[in-house]
Amino acid sequence: MIQPKTEGIDKEFIQLADIARALSHPVRIKILEILTEKKTCICGEIVDLLPLSQSTVSQHLKELKRAGFIRGEIEGPKTCYCLNPETVEKSKKMFTELFSKVCQCC
After folding, report:
1. How many domains are contained in the chain?
2. What is the reported pTM?
3. In this predicted model, what pLDDT tens digit does every residue of 34-91 receive, in sequence order?
4. Of 97, 98, 67, 95, nearest to 83 (Cα)?
5. Which domain holds residue 42?
6. Measuring CA to CA, which residue among 66, 61, 99 is closest to residue 81?
7. The domain that contains 56 carries what CATH number?
8. Residue 4 domain-assigned?
9. Predicted confidence (pLDDT) at residue 103 exceeds the cutoff of 80
10. Is residue 105 part of a domain?
11. From CA 62, how far away is CA 10, in angstroms rounded?
């Protein structure tokens, strides 16, 4: 994958773009919604709740985990996933600050 040029760009903007990239697919947003509704760590249940193959869901989980939105804990042969509240809160704060600034000019 080609890496974007980020010289001279604030670290916060780079982080926010990474967060946006992780949220840029509707399946990932649905996974976050599922984890929010369950309020607990879940394993194979995520695959059962989506009309996608296990490998496709795994790729989306991998991206959410890479961005820090979810944590995965190995329990026997399965990995159980739950939300990472620190990343969710930080992302909310960053987007709120961005849109507060953007909306001032409108």
Report:
1. 1
2. 0.85
3. 999 988 888 788 999 999 999 999 999 999 999 999 998 877 778 899 999 999 999 9
4. 67
5. 11-99
6. 61
7. 1.10.10.10
8. no
9. yes
10. no
11. 26
Q: 17-21, 39-43, 94-98 — which is least confidently predicted? A: 39-43
**Six-digit token string for 4:** 């974007």
The DSSP secondary structure of 10-43, one letter per residue, reads -HHHHHHHHHHHHT-SHHHHHHHHHHHHH-S-BS
Burial grade of 34 (CB within 10 A; 0-12, 13-18, 19 or more): middle
Q: Is residue 2 part of a domain?
A: no
Coil/strand/helix, residue 8: coil
Instruction: Report DSSP letters for 36-104, one per residue.
Output: HHH-S-BSTHHHHHSSS-HHHHHHHHHHHHHTTSEEEEEETTEEEEEE-HHHHHHHHHHHHHHHHHHHH
